[in-house]
Amino acid sequence: MSDESGGQAPGATAPAPDPAAPGAPRAFATPVRSEAYKASGAAASAKQTEGVPPTAPGAPAATAQASGRTAAQPGPAPAPVTRRGFLSTLGVAWTSFAAACAAGAVATNRFMFPNVLFEPPQTFKAGFPSEFLTGMVDTRFKESYGVFIVREETGEIYALKAVCTHLGCTPNWLEAENKIKCPCHGSGFYRTGINYEGPAPRPLERYRIVLADDGQILIDKTRSFAYEKGEWSTPESLLRTA
Ligand code: FES
Known about the structure:
Distance between the termini: 183 Å
Number of helices: 4
Largest sheet: 7 strands, antiparallel
Bound molecules: FE2/S2 (inorganic) cluster
CATH class of the domain at 123-240: Mainly Beta
Order of helices and strands: HHHEEHEEEEEEEEE
Radius of gyration: 58 Å
CATH superfamily of the domain at 123-240: Rieske [2Fe-2S] iron-sulphur domain
């Protein structure tokens, strides 16, 4: 039996009001748009995380994301080699090669020529006999020529080789002690050149000494005289001025 008063039976669903009907309440479309917006946002989020490996629950956030790129993204691509850069590198390489070749050529040429040994002349003039004091050992030519020039009271002048006969050190004339002393191992020599102390096995040698044409003393180091060989009796082993 129908209710003519327009009442609604209990449990019946109320019919939706007709929006076109006059006096009907206005219907809003906002709930519908909101649902569509959520759906589109979920789709976008799914697309954004596509290809990113899932992280373990509770794991810290990936640092790659913090640096602005994901771990799957490759690093910056190497810069391409330009023509200018290639030519510059080639130029440096050729310059280095040419420098090495030049250095080798210089070394080879240097090897072709012997070393020049600058030695004092083997023959020199020491001055006039009157310039040498009697009973004195003259050391003026020791550094430059390696020679002691001795003038005895008898007037004889001889040139001692300033090389120790032990191991070849240069001895010194000690005026106060009136002897020639080697600083290396202590050998001592009289001013005649005769050894008398230390390890020196034999006397100092004497150089050839003569008078030059101009009257000066000429010392010739190309020839020496050894006492132990009896060569001090050779006329040119000493110069007689008296
Ligand atoms: S070198 Fe002169 S004493 Fe040894």
